Amino acid sequence: MRIRSLALLLTGALTISSLSAQTKTTKATATAPAATAEPAKPAFQLFDLPYATDALAPVISQRTVELHYGKHVVGYLHKLNKLVHENDIKERDLARLVRFSSGAIFDNAGQLLNHLLYFKQFRPYEAGRVTEPQGALRAALLRSYKDFDAFKADFEKAGGEIFGSGWLWLSTDEAGVIYIEKTSNAGTPVTRGRVPLLAIDIWEHAYYLDYENRRADHLRAIWQIIDWEVVGRRYEARAKGVQL
User: Fold this and answer.
1) How many CA atoms lie within 13 A of 104 on its CB side?
2) Nearest-CA neighbor of 235 among 208, 209, 198?
3) Is residue 235 exposed (0-12), middle (13-18) or buried (19+ Cβ within 10 Å)?
4) pLDDT, tens only, 90-126
5) In angstroms, rounded to a whole number, what is the distance separating the alpha carbons of residues 113 and 44?
6) Does some domain include residue 102?
7) Is residue 97 in some structural domain?
8) What are phi and psi of 122, to 5 degrees?
9) Per the domain annotation, does 234 fall within a domain?
């Protein structure tokens, strides 16, 4: 749409006689507008996706990514920043805030952290590609499972057992022991002193547009977009706490 700007030219005339008759001039003094404080910088910022919104399709559609990231995650972020401001909270380490908070602050901080881990662990879909963890993470998994397929079966089974909304996790402790964990709502292994490695969102907004009520199909498909290099780095850096 073309936007036309109209300028209004104001003109005025003073006659010579009126100037000569003027015996006194009044100098106008400009009053500077009162300085307004800049709005405080939000405590937490929206993270960027490491891929295009259509890169995970057909496992996760572009529409789901746009709604999930652009609406749900943004909503948690805005609510958290509002709560942090209203309660004068100084903590800026998101994992620490999750671990030591409760109520609405925990809910929104937990969801923000969970989604940060979730969206950062994916890589663009490639037809026919099958990947598995390597290195130290693979060795840790094979200490508990006879092979990777056995781990996947247990993981998917646990995801199907979650009632309502929640998260499915692969986590570890500082000793490197592997756990499959289930949490409700905004729950996270962080509150148990464990390090999250792999996060699968079981809230319906994560899969319902693409799979409707077929959660099991979603869990079977999601292996195709897991970036095991990211998950493996989280495992190797577990002594440092939560890693993205």
Assistant:
1) 12
2) 198
3) buried
4) 999 999 999 999 999 999 999 999 999 999 999 999 9
5) 11
6) yes
7) yes
8) -100, 155
9) yes
Tell whether 148 is covered by a domain. Answer: yes
The total number of structural domains in the chain stands at: 1
For range 183-211, the mean pLDDT: 98
For residue 39, what pLDDT is reported?
A: 60
Distance, CA of 118 to CA of 99 (rounded, Å) = 18
Residue 194 tokens read as 């464990």
| Distance, CA of 242 to CA of 142 (rounded, Å) | 23
In one letter, which amino acid is 45?
Q
Check which CATH number belongs to the domain holding 208 and give it: 3.55.40.20
Reduced to 3 states, what is the DSSP secondary structure of residue 114? helix
Residue 154 has pLDDT above 60, yes or no: yes
Comparison of pLDDT for 132 and 22, the residue scoring more: 132
Nearest Cα to 196, choosing from 173, 227, 166? Answer: 173
Compute the distance between CA of residue 171 and CA of residue 231 in angstroms, rounded to an integer: 10
pLDDT of res. 9: 28
Residue that the structure tokens 């994560």 belong to: 206
Q: Which domain holds residue 221?
A: 60-244
pLDDT at 12 over 50: no
